[in-house]
Amino acid sequence: MKTFELKGKVREELGKRASKATRAEESVPCVLYGTGENVHFTATASDLRKLIYSPEVFIVDLDIDGKKSKAIMKDLQFHPVSDKVLHIDFLEVSDKKPVVLEVPVKLNGLAEGVKAGGKLALQMRKLKVKGIYTDFPEAITIDVTNLGLGKTIQVGAVKIDKLEILNAKNAVVAQVKLTRAARGAAAAAASGK
């Protein structure tokens, strides 16, 4: 899993007025939860951009006034109108306690259903996974070469070593949908026999 380095400064003042002043300075109020005491800090909005606007999942190497820790981004709040980042919650991780993360899904291969005229659709872009952070892959790769026309891959069929998938077992991850052309060809073949 990729890492992202982030420097922060401890916040002395807390509350609505202090948070508003922090945002006016192009910084984002953040909180680090986890093993010890909660740490309130700020990070510059420009430093956070690559962490927030990315489909990838990162382990964040936090450096808050010289105190280093590893964390994941747990929650993110945006302004409803301007879409500016208002607040970020980080969760400190350790190699002893499992965490829950959403890991991106990648499809690999050319599905048989696509060769027959269908269209491959990724229904779930991320899966919720629980485990030790060092065991997490950058993405969950699913082979779709044997996926036929009108067939699906459900969460229950996806297996990852040392990790537990928390999504519903019958939820559809990917499927090959019948297109109009494929339906027409199937109907013509059925009536021609």
TrEMBL record:
Keyword annotations from UniProtKB, A to Z: Ribonucleoprotein, Ribosomal protein, RNA-binding, rRNA-binding
Alphabetized InterPro entries for the sequence: Rbsml_bL25/Gln-tRNA_synth_N (IPR020056), Ribosomal_bL25/Gln-tRNA_synth (IPR011035), Ribosomal_bL25_b-dom (IPR020057), Ribosomal_bL25_C (IPR037121), Ribosomal_bL25_long (IPR001021), Ribosomal_L25_dom (IPR029751), Ribosomal_uL5_bac-type (IPR020930)
One Pfam family this sequence matches: Ribosomal_TL5_C
Domain Large ribosomal subunit protein bL25 L25 as annotated: residue spans: 6-90
Residue ranges of domain Large ribosomal subunit protein bL25 beta in the record: 99-178
GO biological process, one term: translation
CDD domains: Ribosomal_L25_TL5_CTC
GO cellular component, one term: cytosolic large ribosomal subunit
Keyword RNA-binding: yes
GO molecular function, one term: structural constituent of ribosome
Record has Calcium as a keyword: no
NCBIfam families: bL25_bact_ctc, PRK05618.2-2
The protein's name: 50S ribosomal protein L25
Species: bioreactor metagenome
